[in-house]
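To whoever picks this up:

The nightly regression suite flagged TM7S3/TM198-like domain-containing protein as changed. Nothing in the input moved, so I suspect the structure step. Input below, exactly as stored in the fixture:
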Amino acid sequence: MSRKTIVVVIFVLFCLSSIQHHYHLDAAEALTETNGTVLLQPSKATILNIPATSHTILLLRNISSSSAYLICQIHTQFQNLTLSLTPYHNQSQYVTGHGGMGVVTVLQPDQMEVTWHLFSNQIDSVRALVYVTPLTADDPLPGGCNVEYDLEYDPELHLRSSMPLTSTVLFQWASVGFSRSYLPPNCEYSVPQVTLEYKVYVRYNSGNDFSEDAYFDAVQSMITAGDLNDHGFYLQTVDFSLDSKSQITTASYDNQGAIYNVMVTQTKKTTGSKTAAAYIPRIFYTCDLQSTGNDKCGKTDVAAVILATFGGIIGVFLCFLGHRFFKIENFLFGFLAFGLIFYQVMAISTSESEIGNLSVAAVFGIIGGCLYLLCWWYLGFPLLSVLMNGLVAGYLISSIIFYTPFGNLPYWDTQFNYGMTFTCGVLIVPVIILCFTRVLNILSCTFVGSYGVILAIDVYINGGLKFIIVNSLRHAVHQYYLKIVITGPFTTNEIILVVVWFTLFICGTVFQLVRERKRAPFPPSPRQSHQRDAFPRLRRYQSSGEREPLLNTSNSRQYGTVYQIHNTADDYEDNEEVNRISDTEKPGPV
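Regenerated output under the current build:
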């Protein structure tokens, strides 16, 4: 048998085995739908295709003897399902909803099998992710001290949007672990609760990605305590007290899906060892996935795209040519400064729409840019002109600082503390390098300009770097924003944009420093240039050449003759100008 024949036979057998394997998968799915029973495995995510108006039995067998309780959770993107502990909808035994929902089953001694019931009233089939979390007696029980909702144990997260531009995550306090043969601990006894610590985590989806596959991937990356440490971004720790609420309020953004989860950690006093368990993750959208109106997901903001385009063009100019065209640069920085100020004034004092506030801010920005340029035109004082540029760069630096976890420190809960600290951040750049005016001006141009370029790209790809400025504006406009936990997406796209931002900043700085190294630090102001050019003839009369004789013998008058002066019209005009200038320069009376 030749080699070609062997290769063909192997290829045919491989294809047949693949077809047979695919057929068995389809048959298994058909059998599952027919019998209505799905066999689950612990700690393994399973995506099911739930038929329309169906009753599906979820079965878990061969449970480990070390497991004390189980959390069965169901995740759908927006379709409602019902998960019940019994075949019937008994009160306090089932939960209905979408997103992330689940129930807790406390195991009895020697129990090796558990059954849950999943009901669907949808007219179409629904894809759902099912996950069973086994917990031991040493692990805390999420939601074990439920006092608000119907279930005895509620491991779910409940999301609300009580205030604009925010999302509130609520959860029930956990209970300490207990074995199968013991009763659950009394939640009213606060001493065991002190050993529990609650940490809230978040993970952002890619901007404008509202697909079901992206949703399932996000859920699977935030489903266990280990996943939270690996993929989640830590927000804040919620401390237990008898009068505190188990909730946290965070910032929310348009066209951005955020998935939250809480990890509870139990510390044993005797050994100091720690065990952790995760609640059921829940995703939050600021838009309606099923809507086709103004609140639909993925809607493009035309005004933001137009502003970002102009911002990118201006950013390229400032990054590489800002100091060279000093007057244009002054106008642009004046426009930015006054535009930011009057946008905040309009947003605080009026109820205009976003477009109206931006339009008024643009008008006052143009006026402010012209006034700032006029100051340079008339005074020609470089220190004053560079100061505004440094303040704008300092505003951006302060916004970056408060966009980090530093901005979530409890010290900034009051307006005075936040305002004074933010102002100190604005003054960082001018105070440090104000004496090096040219360097300060170039650094301000390249830093702000490079951010303008990155901001344009960020808007196009729905990234998260634009929220650096957005959060600062929200802090200035909304007083309740001081209590908000500030966070934002920082995925691979944002990391790449930060690297590009840093590269543009370095390249622009080096380019402008090299380009301007042999030039004067600053060009003269137009008024100074006009005054300097107004006295050329005076300087000609006041300065004599080296070869000009000390005594003029051409028109020397001889003794006994009459000296006649023959002035031409030009000479007369020159003499009149000299006399006029000389009179103006005479000192006044002392």
